[in-house]
Specification:
Layout (H helix, E strand, L loop, with lengths): L11 H24 L1 H4 L1 E2 L5 E2 L7 H10 L11 H7 L5 E6 L2 H11 L3 H12 L15 H18 L14 E9 L9 E6 L3 E4 L3 E11 L5 E12 L21 H6 L5 E8 L1 H11 L4 H4 L1 H6 L9 H14 L10 H11 L30 E7 L7 E14 L16 E10 L6 E10 L1
Parallel strand pairs: 2-3
Antiparallel strand pairs: 1-2, 3-5, 4-8, 4-10, 5-7, 6-7, 7-8, 9-11, 10-13, 11-12, 12-13
Helix pairs in contact: 3-7, 5-9, 7-12
């Protein structure tokens, strides 16, 4: 019956039935979480958080974060407090680089291994000693993507004492570094990823969180090292001096000046990124951060809509340089490099002047304790790319410059026989009025 034109009241039995259904659903979800806890993570004897190779996937960890109400953060969190809370949070995750997942990632990011093989040989002038055409070689950006999944899983499984920062929304991708050591990994290889304790820095506008990781092969040889910096937006703290570039703040130079400062010749490519780009990368990398997939989630954290994955941007830049022949898809071996230099009758030049330096000594390509990377990529993200967008990648190449130790940086000196192929790149708008990301790639020869 309706009274006075109002809506009919919901019967009490229907209310109890709805409550019962919700309770049953909640109980089922809790039981699933409890039943899969052993396959999702466990604590090792030394206190490290162990993520198994057959973990249930990122959607499980995101659901766990929601059900555990890990959505908020103390408003005046300090870096010292965070470090006191996480003195020994270390993560371990074994992984097998499956061929189908590597191929899916390569396709989502624009790698074309079969086509790039000819460009590698033509541009580099040497045989890499690897089978590029088969597509078995794993791009360096894929290793970083796997390590980020490990970090995401660890954050959701850790206790509040171990990880006090909010899990949703996830931090803004601010910067990352990728390094490869020894011979490049191939699909089918096993890698043990190890994540170091987080390093937090409180800024005026939020919290910067750096997550360092590395990967070793079955012989405990270092193959990969990565670092990802995330930024949590928190209520401003006026007691902290501004760092000037936290969370993607603009730099002093104008975007047009930065783009114009690239050393000629500059290669320029235009990309169209949309929701399909984000979906394909999420499926390939297992990174289902809703900020990249749902416009309303992007708006909830302060963006105009959904934004592209920062890791996709880095991988797409690397794939573009590979497609252009500026970088090889697989790294050359030390033996092939030495043979090519001997055949050419030169050991290299210093600063492009033609001055010869000492011939290279063979280096251990099997890991062997060497600390010199074979490849390094560093990228800083200035602002997110809102979907859909048209963006431009511009880069310049300093081709095969042999760098003596005296010209190397103090924190990472190079031996006199090491050369560097250095690429400086910018991802920006077609109108050159905004820069999304800036970075460098270095191939140590």
């Amino acid at each position: 019956m309706m009274e006075g034109g109002g809506e009919a009241a919901v019967p009490q039995w229907a209310q109890w039935a709805a409550l019962l259904i919700l309770s049953v659903c909640a109980a089922v979800v809790v039981q699933v979480l409890l039943a899969t806890r052993g396959t999702a993570y466990r604590r090792d004897a030394d206190g490290a958080l162990y993520i198994p190779a057959d973990h249930p996937g990122v959607p499980y960890y995101v659901l766990r974060a929601i059900l555990c109400c890990r959505l908020r953060c103390p408003p005046r969190l300090r870096a010292a407090d965070f470090q006191a809370w996480t003195p020994r949070l270390r993560t371990v995750m074994p992984a097998t680089l499956e061929a189908d997942r590597v191929a899916e990632f390569a396709a989502a990011c624009g790698y074309r291994p079969g086509e790039d093989a000819a460009d590698v040989g033509r541009d580099s002038g040497h045989d890499s000693g690897r089978d590029e055409a088969s597509g078995r070689v794993v791009p360096p950006t894929y290793l970083q993507a796997v390590s980020e999944v490990m970090s995401m899983a660890a954050a959701t499984c850790a206790s509040r004492a171990d990880w006090p920062l909010p899990l949703l929304p996830l931090p803004i991708h601010a910067a990352q570094t990728i390094e490869l050591f020894g011979e490049q990994l191939c699909a089918g290889d096993g890698v043990l990823f190890v994540g170091s304790p987080p390093v937090a820095t409180r800024t005026r506008r939020g919290m910067e969180l750096r997550l360092d990781s590395h990967g070793v092969d079955g012989g405990n040889n270092l193959r990969f090292r990565g670092s990802m910096t995330g930024f949590y937006r928190l209520p401003p703290d006026p007691t902290i001096e501004s760092s000037g570039n936290s969370g993607g703040a603009a730099t002093a130079a104008s975007p047009a000046d930065e783009i114009g400062a690239l050393t000629a010749p500059v290669r320029r490519h235009e990309w169209v990124v949309d929701a399909r780009t984000a979906r394909e990368y999420a499926a390939a990398s297992d990174d289902y951060n809703p900020t990249h997939l749902l416009p309303w989630c992007g708006r909830a954290v302060g963006f105009p809509g959904a934004v592209v994955h920062g890791m996709w941007t880095a991988a797409r830049v690397h794939a573009q340089c590979v497609a252009d022949g500026a970088l090889p898809y697989s790294l050359p071996t030390a033996a092939s490099l030495h043979a090519a230099r001997v055949a050419a009758g030169t050991t290299g030049v210093s600063g492009g002047t033609g001055t010869t330096v000492a011939p290279p000594s063979p280096r251990d390509d099997g890991g062997g304790g060497t600390s010199q990377p074979r490849f390094r990529m560093s990228i800083a993200f200035r602002r997110p790319i809102v979907l859909p967008s048209t963006v431009v990648c511009s880069y310049s190449l300093a081709d095969a410059v042999w760098v003596p130790a005296a010209g190397a940086s103090a924190d990472a000196p190079l031996p006199p026989d090491i050369g560097v192929r250095r690429i400086t790149f910018l991802v920006h708008t077609p109108a050159n009025d905004a820069v999304y990301a800036r970075g460098t790639m270095e191939l140590f020869l």
